Amino acid sequence: MTDKDYLRAQRELWEPATGPNGMSRRKFLQALGVGAGAALVAPSLMSRFEAFAADDSTTDGILVLVMLGGGNDGLNTLVPFNDGKYRSLRPALRYEPPGAGTRGVLSINDANFGLNPNLPRLKARYLQNRVAFVRGVGYNPSDMSHFTSMGYWMNGWKDAPPQQFANGWVGRYMDSLPGASTNALLGACIGSSVPLHMIGTSARAAGIPQDIGGAFGLNRSKPYDARMFDAFAAYGNTPTGKGQWADLVAKTNKSSMTVAQAVQPAYAGALGGDDLVRQLTLTARLINLNLGTRVFHTHLSSFDTHGDQESMHSRLLASLDAGIEALFANLSATQRPRVTLLTFSEFGRRPDEASNGTDHGAAGLDIVVGDKVKGGIYGEQPSLTDLDSHGNLKASTDFRAVYAEMLDSWLGADPVPILGKDYPRLGLFTGAPASPTTSTTLPPVVTTTTTQPPATTTTTRPPATTTTTQPPGTTTTTRPPGTTTTTQPPGTTTTTTRPPGTTTTTQPPGTTTTTQPTTTPGTLPRRRRPRRWRGRPFS
């Protein structure tokens, strides 16, 4: 079942992609916005394909996101089969202990938890210490709207979502990287749209289609097409003499062909499998090309299981299991140690069943997979006897703590300017992407409570912490002990250091305190209409 709130979230929290999927001649002209809207649309499109560079690094981490859209049922993914309350709340949907036939969970050598029987390959990876399960992930107080919850997760800023926002946590990370405003492939979304979390103030992920057959500039089999493409490329090498807009059109035509040609080798051979398998197979092939992409987004929908949950959820988890296997099976030996996969969902499901399904819930489950992942079960298991006022699991691990771990430990970025404050680390990795792979005999259970209430509005830097490691291309600021600062998100004015004992005020991303974008000769400033937050707390 797909409710109206979920459709609204898909409509309002995603944007049409610009990338190889938009490079047919017709789509290019449409995206260019020829006509009255050109002044607003074109600058952002033009800047996306000005440059990208192959990445010769084999040490930088790469993050692959898998969004489980609709609200995945964490209780029936990592199953507390020995909890009597779980068994009584789910008389029809519950899973049984290992060895109990088709309803028996997969044993992971844990007396209380087992895996959904549709995740056999994930189980094998877990027993190799390459999978971490993070329990109780969410925020308090919870909101059971798809739209509002997706907004929280995608935006990723501290506390509650701001009233206006125009970017997401991965976008702000990409903003910190060299070439943020010009490199089209710092982030990539497999599909025809780009979700909010992949959009920054300057950077924006490219949309990569599963079929690139119609991309502009690729098919040179006919002599007259080849001559046309060569003419477009030559036209973009020098000023056209027709003015700034003509120069931008010519430059973008050339650059779009360059990007399409760069990703074309990833399409050699059939992708195979279901939709998620195809997405993650293509992701692996793009990673193997080493084009400098740091974050990929993929999407598996239909987890909103209000009815017929048993068959729907089983099918979806089987797809997830196959997709994860396809990603790592198709990665080259050189690239595999650089890659970590993270699943996330806007919320979990309600503990008690109803009408062969479950309602919108609160706390859920994140899954982290990779060669450098420290396998185990993390976070405090939410109590089934101490539910919130709506009968849902209370979050024990703030979802931004998971983001902070990915940013700091895997992508090498300071989480504070990206998330608005620091969050406790979960210790999900054995080391950095370039470090030797290690393993333990048995994955541990690590209980860590990291929930941060949305009402918290200030972040105090410990006096002993005087420097912050910034991503390449940014500066490091040293502040005196006792100074309390609040991080300004990308796109706002610079925070000024004040005497000890004073504070500064944080402006969330997209609020009215902004700076004008930097322009260079021959380009126009990018203009973005602020998104208005129309969600409201559940009541």
Compact overview of the structure:
By secondary structure, the chain is α/β, with parallel strands linked by helices. It contains 13 helices and 17 strands.
Global structural class: alpha/beta
SS elements, strand count = 17
Distance between the termini: 23 Å
Helix content class: 25-40%
- Summed up, the helix count is 13
In oligomeric terms, what are we looking at? single chain
Give a short account of the largest sheet.
10 strands, mixed
| Pattern of helices and strands | HEHHEEHEEHEHEHEEEHHHEHEEEEHHEE
* Radius of gyration, CA atoms, in whole angstroms: 24 Å
Strand percentage lies at 5-15%
How many structural units, i.e. domains? 1
The average pLDDT value, as a whole number, equals 78
Low-confidence stretches: 21-51, 448-539
The coarse overall form would be elongated
Characterization of this structure:
By secondary structure, the chain is α/β, with parallel strands linked by helices. The relative contact order is 0.19. The chain has helices at about 5-10, 25-30, 40-50, 85-90, 120-125, 145-155, 170-175, 225-235, 245-265, 275-290, 310-330, 400-410, 415-420, and strands spanning about 15, 60-70, 80, 105, 115, 130-140, 165, 185-190, 195, 205-210, 295-300, 340-345, 365-370, 375-380, 395-400, 445, 530. Residues about 20-50 and about 450-539 have low confidence and may be disordered. Strands 2, 6, 8, 10, 11, 12, 13, 14, 15 and 16 form a ten-stranded mixed β-sheet that branches. The chain has one domain. The protein contains 13 helices and 17 strands.
